[in-house]
Amino acid sequence: SLNSETQTTASTCCYCGVGCGVLIEHDGERILGVQGDPAHPANFGRLCSKGSTLHLTGDIDARALYPELRLAKGLARARTDWSTALDHAASRFAETIREYGPDSVAFYISGQLLTEDYYAFNKLARALVGTHNIDSNSRLCMSSAVVGYKRSLGVDAPPCSYEDLEQSDCVLIAGSNMAFAHPILFRRLEAAKAQRPDMRVIVIDPRRTDTCDLADLHLAIRPGTDVALFHGILHILIQEGWVARRFIAEHTEGFEALETQAADSTPEAVAELCGITESDLRCCAEWIGKSPTFLSLWCMGLNQSTAGSAKNSALINLHLATGMIGRPGCGPFSLTGQPNAMGGRETGSLANLLPGHREAGNAEHRAEVAQYWGVDSLPVRPGLTAIELFEAVRDGRIKALWIACTNPAQSLPDQLKIHEALAACPFVVVQEAFFTTETCRYADLLLPAASWGEKEGTVTNSERRVSHVRRAVPAPAEARPDWAIVCDFAQRLESQLRPGLPSLFDFDNAEALFEEYKQLTSGRDLDLTGIDYALLDNQGPQQWPLPVGATQGTPRLYVDGRFPTASSRARFVADAYCAPQEPRDDRYPLTLNTGRLRDQWHGMSRTGTAARLFGHVEQAMLSLHPDELHQRGLQDGQLVRVTSRRASLILPVQSDDAIQPGEAFLPMHWGDRFLKGLGCNVLTLPAFDPLSKQPELKHAAVAIEEA
Ligand code: SF4
Questions:
Q1: Which residue range or ranges hold the 4Fe-4S Mo/W bis-MGD-type domain (predicted)?
Q2: How far is CA 680 from CA 77, 206, 458, 595, in A?
Q3: Does 162 contact ligand 1 (Cβ within 6 A)?
Q4: Interval between CA 454 and ligand 1 midpoint (Å)
Q5: What are the angstrom distances between the C-alpha of 500 and each of 102, 270, 492, 495?
Q6: What is the mean pLDDT of residues 29-38?
Q7: Which of 243, 464, 488, 531 shows a CA-CA span of 20 to 30 A to 321?
Q8: Which of helix, strand or coil describes residue 231?
Q9: Boundaries of every domain in the chain
């Protein structure tokens, strides 16, 4: 219960990319409660089941509290002090770099870090160590959207605002169960549709999810056929004269090639391929083509695919063809999975990027960043992306690995191979708030990190809005903020790698990191130079770009029809449809889809500590269409063995007619701690998109039998 001692600190929710504002209630030592922040423009005071239970999830018994070190594999880790821990880590990294070169070490970080944490890691890897081997779990989340935006529009910038949800007449939701994954935005959409019942909502998803409750039209396409569907819609738009010829002529390039390609995507052929009716396909195209405004929302169903980049561009094509971009209620709008995947992209926290939306493969960009950091140069050799990086760990090329705020032993595909890699890596550092994750098992050095409510910094949500994340209480025991751990380690490594030179990591607080970082965005598309902590405190969260001198942020991009490409025109992308990597066959006759539940987050390190959050779904179950159970003589609740080409998993089955025959669904959250035999990713395959390198976590062929 709250009393007169209770204080309130405004911050943000640490789960999804909606980025809701929260008010943390505390007594200066302990967090006592949480409320939605009525002043935050993402949620106006609302919170979903996950956000409203944040204060119940900090279970101290699950927290990493002290640095722990082991000097040889097979030994148990023992408690140590910070100085010993970081000196040891610096020596191990320095020895490895001296003996095998800078690319023998790697950093695997997280979309849940704060912008300042990301920046410190980037500077550490690229400026001090001299490697681009720094990738993040955003590779599993948004990297296909990054490629989609860059190829089609020039830069990685979602052009819309949440208020477009309230202003659109036709909203297409593709590959997203936003009712579960982005609940507060879904509530906003529900409210908008209640207010304006003429608003059309189209949902594209192989499953009939809770999001479909709002749909006027649900296209339950065959898994992975999205590109064919979007080309089919474009075919009808062209055929019916529903394309914006003037916008295309004045503001785009490449339409002819796409038009030629779309000519083959006849409604008959596309309906057949996608497993939908031609009339539904035509209805979808007509609603888009005749609507005065058109907004599309998407998430992992498009991104986590070997055709993820093509799916993103094919959807953006529809906006360019209809001119539905840069206006209220219009535009392609990716829903960011993690709370600060955007900040990661901004600071260059994917192997192929550099801070300020720069490219690691661009010599001019490398020179700009090197000069700003005061180092001679940045490496030319490309860095390894998530799947490649763990392959390199497994085959011995990476000999020292630093993992922060993420659980690759559960979240990467072909999970057993990841466990092999981690077991074989000579030196693994895990920087974590919760010691209960699968990955911590492999840590030679475990570094306790501060968590939600215990650290300060900034995050950017899906609509480019930067919020100030504030610290309410001290971190427990010896846990420290991520940026502070990185800078402390970096200074020790500097004394070995560049002795006598001034430190690159002389930061007293998170704000100092932000102030240095933001100058790297000066003149770039995401210019943040007009933002500082005081502005965020006084005027609230702001949408970039907000350059120095501007009085407020930018709600909508491309309003003048000019795009940040060489020609100032947006680009149509004419990718052909490619089937998913692993088709089903007689031996593996079902397509496995994976996804989120309403009340759990990622690998449950946090949500798994609150009993209340198991009220919605108590345990992991494999969902199958009733006919599939019947054919196999299976009963609801019976244990089954699910087998893919990689491994098997035993768990109960449940009948669910929201799943199409021939398909299966598994929630992604359960790992070793809750499910004997690890999690859904023992089954998934490590194939990835050739451009975004994002793995195909939503499509694997499996077989089911009684266990
Ligand atoms: Fe947190 Fe996302 Fe729920 Fe908002 S919608 S409260 S950010 S989990």
A1: 6-62
A2: 28, 18, 32, 10
A3: no
A4: 18
A5: 20, 65, 12, 7
A6: 97
A7: 464
A8: helix
A9: 7-56, 68-141+339-543, 143-335, 590-706
Model pTM greater than 0.95? yes
> Which atom of ligand 1 has the smallest separation from the CA of 339?
7
The predicted-structure confidence for 40-79, as pLDDT tens digits, reads as follows: 999 999 999 999 999 999 788 999 999 999 999 999 999 9
Average pLDDT of every residue of the chain: 96
Confidence class of residue 1 from pLDDT cuts 50, 70 and 90?
very low
Say which CATH architecture domain 68-141+339-543 belongs to. 3-Layer(aba) Sandwich (3.40)
- Averaged pLDDT for residues 684-694: 98
Give residue 605's pLDDT: 86
CA of 20 to the centre of ligand 1 (A): 6
Distance (Å) from CA 467 to ligand 1 centroid: 14
Token representation of residue 544: 């970039």
Mapped onto helix, strand or coil, the DSSP state of residue 219 is: strand
Domain 7-56 has CATH 3.30.300.20: no
Residue 674 Cα to ligand 1 middle (Å)? 24
Query: Going by DSSP bridges, is the β-strand pair 105-109/134-136 parallel, antiparallel, or unpaired?
Result: parallel
Nearest-atom index, ligand 1, CA of 42 = 4
Is the shortest distance between the CB of 596 and ligand 1 below 6 Å?
A: no
Is 674 a residue whose pLDDT tops 80?
A: no
Decide which of 551 and 665 is more confident.
Answer: 665
Residue ID of nearest Cα to ligand 1 atom 6: 51
In the reported structure, the alpha carbon of residue 182 is separated from the centroid of ligand 1 by a whole-number distance in angstroms of 7
> Residue 48 Cα, ligand 1 centroid: separation in angstroms?
6
CB of 333 closer than 8 Å to CB of 296: yes
Residue 206 and residue 660 in contact, taking contact as beta carbons nearer than 8 Å: yes
51 lines ligand 1 (CB under 6 A): yes
Closest CA to 690 of 150, 144, 145, 302: 144
Asked whether the predicted pLDDT for residue 4 surpasses 70, the reply is: no
179 CB less than 6 Å from ligand 1?
A: no
Give the residue whose CA is nearest to atom 4 of ligand 1: 20
- At residue 234's C-alpha, the angle toward residues 268 and 254, to 5°, is 135
CA distance 668 to 682: 11
Pocket of ligand 1 contains residue 16 by CB under 6 Å: yes
In the block, which residue shows the tokens 């098992």? 441
CA-to-CA distance for 350 and 222, rounded, in angstroms?
A: 31
Q: Work out the average pLDDT over 383-390.
A: 98
Mutate to test the pocket of ligand 1, among 14, 184, 460 (most ligand atoms within 8 A of CB): 184
The one-letter amino acid code at 517 reads: Y
Q: d(Cα 374, Cα 368) in Å, to the nearest integer?
A: 10
Half-sphere exposure of 211 (CA within 13 A, CB side): 34
Q: Which atom of ligand 1 is nearest to the CA of 601?
A: 8
Judge contact between 224 and 660, C-beta under 8 A. no
Of the candidates 166, 260, 273, 289, the one whose C-alpha atom is nearest the C-alpha of residue 223 is 273
Strands 457-460 and 200-204, how do they pair?
A: unpaired
> What span, in angstroms and rounded, lies between the C-alpha atoms of 140 and 600?
18
Task: Check if CATH label 3.40.50.720 holds for domain 590-706.
Answer: no
Q: Any idea which of 319-323, 529-533, 653-657, 668-672 has the lowest mean pLDDT?
A: 668-672
On the question of pLDDT at 468 being above 60, the answer is yes
Atom of ligand 1 nearest to the CA of 19: 7
